[in-house]
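User: Earlier you gave me the apo prediction for this protein. Now I'd like the version with PRP bound, so I can compare the two side by side. Same sequence as before, with the ligand SMILES added.
Assistant: Got it. Here's the input I'm using:
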Amino acid sequence: MLLPDTLDGRLLLAIPKKGRLYDKCLTILAGADIQFRRHHRLDVSLSTNLPIALVFLPAADIPSFVGKGNVDLGITGHDVILESQMQDLVTENLRLGFGKCALQVQVPENGPIKSIEDLAGKRVVTSFEVLAAKYFNELDDKLGLQGDKKTQIEYVGGSVEAACALGLADGIVDLVESGETMRAAGLHAIDTVLKTEAVLISSTTPKHPDLEPVIKLVNSRIAGFIAASEYTIVQYNIPRARLSAATEITPGRRAPTISPIEGEGWVAVSSMVPKKDVATVMDKLVTVGAEDVLVIKLDNCRV
Ligand SMILES: Nc1ncnc2c1ncn2[C@@H]1O[C@H](COP(=O)(O)OP(=O)(O)OP(=O)(O)O)[C@@H](O)[C@H]1O
Ligand SMILES: O=P(O)(O)OC[C@H]1O[C@H](OP(=O)(O)OP(=O)(O)O)[C@H](O)[C@@H]1O
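And here is the structure of the complex with PRP:
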């Protein structure tokens, strides 16, 4: 059994207990070497190697727990922070590069509604009633729609994409990642309300200032793991006379490391390069005279 004073002196880190962000959060915890054992039916796990307790909560509740200072750090979606209106009470310390999707206005592909102006004043179903209301209030104001002419927003807890086919709505506001759900429901997007990804958040008014060193440690470990997953190291040899052309191609995050090597007028360069650019960077390096170009995988780093 977990007693309340077992948590004394521990940083509380909230993680979504299920859903789209859960698996990636576990990968991040492993990358940051935050070790724990999750007991069946218990939503609090004590870390076995750091003064941290993990609290597994619904993603939608995490901004409020962090904002009110009940937990010190949390991982959730940027969209969820805005939907729970906690943006003034939480700080987004890090973008985590996963859970990327867009909150979009969608309508039946073969229906009469072609634009957001056509949809204004009609029925919209969503799980994001705060963000959808803000979006359509602004649109209604712009179009001069008032009183019972205004767009009607109705909340549903899930399976939003079924609302048009069931006759509940003329349009929906829902998250789109691959677009598969939207297409399968015969819908298409006519506007984007916002783009979102998972973020690491802390309270703007922390309740436990003494935990600041552990907060910094967790931030730094997670930032290092994220950077390692987004970057790779490119190492090459280049005649000194071509060095500036080469370092323009590989400027690094801060600056490239340049070391002298055996042999007249050659240097070795090592630089962090975004993974997505690595093939093009290697091609360009070869064109400016680089030789022995190597790509080295990064497991982890501190940046
Ligand atoms: N298709 C998706 N692709 C990427 N990220 C997503 C996707 N759907 C949701 N997310 C992100 O994950 C967050 C939580 O979404 P999810 O639907 O898993 O919520 P949940 O309420 O925790 O789980 P569920 O409703 O499925 O039981 C969203 O607010 C969003 O930031
Ligand atoms: O563009 P896609 O890659 O198809 O992803 C979008 C779907 O993912 C989310 O729902 P989820 O599957 O998490 O379930 P839910 O409907 O219960 O929220 C979202 O609400 C969409 O339905």
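For your comparison, keep in mind: The chain has three domains: 4-98+198-207, 101-196, 231-296.
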